[in-house]
Amino acid sequence: MNQRISVFVFHTCRFFLCALFFVLILTSLVGCSLLPQISNEAGSAFSSSTTSEPSTEITESPRIIPFFTTESDPAQLAALQTIIQEYQALHPDVEVDIVLASPASRGRRLLTSLASGADLGIFEIEPTLMPEWVDSGYLLPLDDVANAIGENDFVPGSLFRANNHVYALPYATSVYGLWVRKDLFEQAGLALPSTYDEVLTAARKLTHAGMYGIALPAGQNIATVNYFSTFLWQNGTDYFSCDGKVVFGQPQALEAVKRWSELTKFAPPGFTTWDYSEQIDAFLSGQVAMTMYGGRLGVQLASTHPELEDKVTVIFPPWGKEKVTLGVWSRFAIASGTKNQADAKDFLRFLVSGNQLLLYDMTLPGHMIPSLESVRKLALQDSSSYTLKHKDWINSFYEWSQYINHPAMNMGSMSDGHFLRSEVVPPWARELFGTPGIIDSMLQDIAMGNRSPEEGWQIATTRMQQSIDEWKSSHPTWVGKCAP
Question: How many of the other CB atoms lie within 10 Å of CB of 189?
Answer without folding.
Answer: 7
